[in-house]
Amino acid sequence: MAKKRAKLPKLSIEPIRTVAELEDRLSCPTPGVVEAMAKLDGDLLILGAGGKIGPTLAQMAARAFEAAGVKRSIIGVSNVYSAEALQRLKRLGVKIVKTELLEPGALDTLPDAANVMYMLGMKFGSTGAEWNTWGVNVHLAGMAASRYRHSRIVAFSSGNIYPFLPIGIGATEQTTPSPIGEYAMSCLGRERMFDYYSNNAGTKVLHYRLNYAVELRYGIVYDIASKVWSGAPIDVTMGFVNVIWQGYANAVALQSFAYADSPPGIINVAGPETVSIRWMAQRFGELMGKEPIIEGEEAANALLSNGAKCHKLFGMPDVGIDTVVEWVAHWIMSGGVTLGKPTHYETRDGKF
Questions:
Q1: Between 341 and 43, residue with greater pLDDT
Q2: What is the CATH number of the domain that holds 132?
Q3: Residue 219 lies in a domain
Q4: Model-wide pTM > 0.90
Q5: 320 C-beta neighbours (distance < 10 Å), count
Q6: Which of 117, 127, 132, 174 is the most buried (most CB within 10 A)?
């Protein structure tokens, strides 16, 4: 007997139904991105172009250059790409380099580029292999900062470097870092490597502190939705989070070269909402016809970032949390694919 198909939720917006449509939305350049790419002098090198965010960011850059009518090379560097990402990037003319950058001399084989998007990092699997985490997040960052010390660098970082703060108070760019656990400490170490070259060699750097990107195949919103759908318990001890639509995060990153400086600039990339995990679970329960299983009680503090500076510079996100929740509910109930990369948002001891 055929399995009965789930009754899809009634949405207030049009759903995203296919990976192709999702990738198109995540990589569609805003007018601000087109303008920024038109003004960008020199080629663009993306270190970490095969990760969760890299492929759609590279696609957005290519589409923006084309819309701006300028010819620039985009070089995407990674040690792994999915077959689908390779196909899309090659179709848009992105030059693909597959290499393990920690191998001796690997960075020296890469071309020079006036603009470097640094997206390399290790988070999950850090506990028990701390040396690998520091090797990727700190040692490799130092080597890359040296190799591209004459370039403009937008360096991806994380809101994990901030302390837990009372609910309603998000860390600003002026908040003193106080990382919890070796992963978060290594993220701060990565920033310090770029700080070293920025302050001593004049390298123009922008620290891009992301907290947290979401789309329909992964992210905190996906994690909560999948637990509601499968009947898994949801821990609400880390009771509140910031999330940001990945398409907006891509657009901000590509416009951030204009704010790279020496000493480095800093920008928090986070959504305007302080999102309740309990509310999210309950909303997914309504959409999916499920009763969420809630465990624990909300702590008095959480890892939260204030993205006001980002919103002032680049405008408010064009996709808000209510829309993402509806899209993700429909995606999961329709059998949409997943990247299979849980965020472990509930972690409070810094062990990933």
A1: 43
A2: 3.40.50.720
A3: no
A4: yes
A5: 15
A6: 117
